[in-house]
Amino acid sequence: MRGTAMLPASKSESNRALILQALAGGGTLTHLSEANDTQLMRRLLAHPEAEVFDAEDAGTVMRFLTAYLAVTGRRTTLTGTARMLERPIGVLVDALRKLGANIGYLGREGYPPLQLNGFEPGAATTLAVRGDISSQFISALMMVGPLIPGGLNLQLTGHIGSRPYITMTASLMRHFGAQVEVRDRDVRVAPKPYKPADYTIEADWSAASYWYAMVALGPAGSQIHLPGLRRQSWQGDQAIMYLMDPLGVHTEFVADGVILRQAPAKERAGHVAMNFTDCPDLAQTIAVTAAATGVTVDMVGLESLRIKETDRIAALQNELGKFGASLTAEERDMFRVSAPQLHVNGQSVATYHDHRMAMAFAPLALRGKIDVETPAVVRKSYPFFWEELRQAGFKM
Ligand SMILES: O=C(O)C1=C[C@@H](OP(=O)(O)O)[C@@H](O)[C@H](O)C1
Ligand SMILES: C=C(OP(=O)(O)O)C(=O)O
């Protein structure tokens, strides 16, 4: 396999930039993501007086808008898909209530849908927030921090997952003129207003992971050029370049992006350990690629996978099993993915309303025929994924 593949722009950067642009009252965003999550955020922000905000299945939209709408004093309802109503939001609601937001639960306590009933700045500006459920709660609070009279001081407690997304939030906030410091468990945001700024969004490293998988599984000598990725990135999922090295993919930065090259098979590891605490969205790509390349991977840091678009651990276990691979729980929160022999012979892969299930399993088509159920799920982050595969020579 050879050629160039186009990536969507980062949906994490895009969705932060849209909130910051709204709070700053201007600035031009270039290369906003085509992802449904981003297009949805853009549409919802364009109608701030709406009576109901439907975040669909987009975690960042649900969490970031909750903080944005609450602190800007809106009276409105926030809801989402059936799965979104199972994804927790209590940590964020508790924190916003302490800051002065009046928020009620319309269904189950701790989960959407939410009723927002205005904002009266309270006395609290220092809050303890747990970091082990979703970093999106912390990012959401940080972005509204400059609007809180007296600023905001978050003390993060417990195990902190997805930390690079917190530092990405801080970096983008600074780009829009905010004063923010992140030191270990201490996050401080000054009550200094945002200023309009222009920003060009980088390509999406999480989306790039599927091309790493294709280079790993393609014929000897496979290589792919991915324009739009930067060496200096705010995306923690740039870690894919290190995680894929033992699975036989080398990364070279070129002027306009990266070139991925398959390494000789003898350079692949036999058994490696990897930690996904900082990059949970890469876990599915690695699990499938490891199974297909015969590398055993001990995976830790998978806790948050249970509360994403689906229970991604259960989904991986079911679908890997269809190919003769396994993801088994071992001691101390470790999961081992292994496959003595992978059989790809026409299996149908269920996708569980999860874009990453579809895209992580798609590269198995390089080893035989597969059916991916409900392929349109990719629209959440990478709507033209199948089109790019066709361009790369896949028969569909
Ligand atoms: O802030 C963000 O843009 C994201 C944070 C991560 O979620 P968690 O913090 O819930 O792990 C990640 O999985 C998600 O795809 C995007
Ligand atoms: C977990 C994801 O998104 P979100 O939490 O924003 O719905 C994802 O894109 O893998």
UniProtKB/TrEMBL annotation:
Reaction(s) catalysed (UniProt annotation): 3-phosphoshikimate + phosphoenolpyruvate = 5-O-(1-carboxyvinyl)-3-phosphoshikimate + phosphate
Task: Give the GO biological process terms.
Answer: amino acid biosynthetic process; aromatic amino acid family biosynthetic process; chorismate biosynthetic process
Q: In which pathway does it act?
A: Metabolic intermediate biosynthesis; chorismate biosynthesis; chorismate from D-erythrose 4-phosphate and phosphoenolpyruvate: step 6/7
Alphabetically sorted, this entry's keywords are: Amino-acid biosynthesis, Aromatic amino acid biosynthesis, Transferase
Q: Which stretches make up the Enolpyruvate transferase domain?
A: 46-389
Tell me its EC number(s), please: 2.5.1.19
Q: Which CDD domains match?
A: EPSP_synthase
- One of the record's GO molecular function terms: 3-phosphoshikimate 1-carboxyvinyltransferase activity
Entry similarity comment: Belongs to the EPSP synthase family.
In Swiss-Prot or TrEMBL terms, this protein is called 3-phosphoshikimate 1-carboxyvinyltransferase
What is the scientific name of the source organism?
A: Hymenobacter oligotrophus
